[in-house]
Amino acid sequence: MLEALGRKFARFTTNQVVRWPRAWPLFRWLTRRQFDRIAPVWDEMRSAEAFAPLDAALDWLDTAPSRVLDLGTGTGRAAFLLARRYPEAEVVGVDLAPAMLAEARKLTPPELAGRVRFEEADAEHLAYPDASFDLVSLANMIPFFPELARITAPGGAVVFSFSGGAETPIYVAPELLRKELSKLGFAEFADFAVGRGTALAARKPPGGVV
Ligand SMILES: C[S@@+](CC[C@H](N)C(=O)[O-])C[C@H]1O[C@@H](n2cnc3c(N)ncnc32)[C@H](O)[C@@H]1O
Question: Residue 133 and which of 48, 64, 153, 155 are 20 to 30 A apart at CA?
Answer without folding.
Answer: 48
